[in-house]
Amino acid sequence: KKKIIIAIDGFSSTGKSTIAKLLAKKYNYIYVDTGAMYRAVTLFAKQNNFVDKDFLDDNALILNLKQITLSFKFNKNLGFAEMFLNNINVEKDIRTLEVSQLVSKVSTISEVRKKLVAEQQKMGENSGIVMDGRDIGTVVFPNADLKLFMTASADKRATRRYKELIDRGDNVKFSEILFNVQERDRIDSTREDSPLIKANDAIEFDNSDMGIQEQFERICSLVDEKL
Ligand code: C5P
Fold first, then answer.
1. Among 135, 131, 182, 188, which Cα is nearest to 156's?
2. Which of 53, 157, 164, 182 has the greatest number of CB atoms lying within 10 Å of its CB?
3. The domain spanning residue 51 has which CATH number?
4. Could you tell me what percent of the chain has a pLDDT over 70?
5. Where ATP is bound, by residue (predicted)?
6. Whose CA is nearest to atom 2 of ligand 1?
7. Whole-model pTM?
8. What mean pLDDT do residues 163-187 have?
């Protein structure tokens, strides 16, 4: 059977990774969460003190990019791959609000994007992949077989993200999550290098009021048409 590349882009917390994981499971594809890679680079910058309050030392990070090795390792119990930074599992550490507050700034740096995009393209060489992010259908795989673009109201998205963080025991306020979601969208959509935009040939899904299951079924029929 033919193996394809599925690109999923969209604003933060629109359920991209939920859909991507379901697709990967159903079609036996590899799922790559590119946001986790930008988050891991951000964590590296924090760990090495390239960040002081809101100030990020871009040059120090750029000079040290070679020290960063990213890898995904599949966790059977979870059913998806976890992010490793220099061979250490950082899956939990990259999902904090602190990392979320800095990641969009890190993601504006072209040298960072160049490194990660090259790694992502390599992972897609053999197709059979579903990748989510902000520039997958526009920059990483402009020839992807199927492109999806996810949206939802900021309030719905912040509510989802807030619940995720509270459920895992983080002490956060809804207002700061809402602010973070909107601020990231603003930075991601307005940056010069690879801004978040819908590719011309992407199919848009607004899931403000649509359940994941209904959406997943619709997306599966789009995938099946391509196989
Ligand atoms: O997907 P997630 O919300 O974890 O992504 C975190 C951040 O990483 C985004 O807000 C964006 O700044 C950056 N990102 C990106 N390009 C991608 C994936 C994520 O710039 N392909």
1. 182
2. 157
3. 3.40.50.300
4. 100
5. 10-18
6. 35
7. 0.97
8. 96
